[in-house]
Amino acid sequence: MGKVYVFDHPLIQHKLTFIRDKKTGTKEFRELVDEVATLMAFEITRDLPLQEVTIETPVSEAKSKVLAGKKLGLIPILRAGLGMVDGILNLIPAAKVGHVGLYRDPDTLKPVEYYVKLPSDIEERELIVIDPMLATGGSANEAIHVLKKRGARQIRLMCLIAAPEGVEAVKKEHPDVDIYLAAMDEKLNEKGYIVPGLGDAGDRLFGTK
Ligand code: PRP
Ligand code: URA
Prior knowledge:
Catalyzes the conversion of uracil and 5-phospho-alpha-D-ribose 1-diphosphate (PRPP) to UMP and diphosphate. By secondary structure, the protein is an alpha/beta fold.
């Protein structure tokens, strides 16, 4: 069964408070999401494997460590996932970025796919699917299906805020996928919004609506 990690670093929790606040405007919202994405990237990469190399410092030879293992791929779910990409690339600039375009039908709450463009070698990469919101879990589940259908083998899911319903849905459909969050909220409301959540992540990031 997939594991669920909630990153409760004080800086993440502090910034998330301002992200949630409805008084926070688009510019600040975007900056804060970017910063939290960087902090979450720091946490999610804690278990990356290292290998020892020998280098020469100005003083002597030294054994030291560099990243080893699989290369990474970031897969933002369009559109709101885009808001987290640069923040993660700040720490792992060599990651390739693929895009999965999905929107949630406002009546059925089911994801509708409209765009997929992925790195050609996703089967060899460790992929991180990114989306600020995990509500019903429909979008994340569909994005993970899209990746698996095209050969992806190692996938993690990183979201700012999740509802318990979404976490359960992903755990059920993709038990091989670990989930990384900044917060686990209370519930979904009757319109499928996370409570208390932050509202519509895409609209708040891009100033639409
Ligand atoms: C939001 C959000 C997720 C999805 C979550 O996207 O960014 O992708 O809803 O809901 P779910 O877990 O119930 O599927 P939205 O469909 O509003 O599209 P947008 O990113 O283009 O605004
Ligand atoms: N999508 C959002 O942007 N916000 C929610 O609360 C749920 C889905």
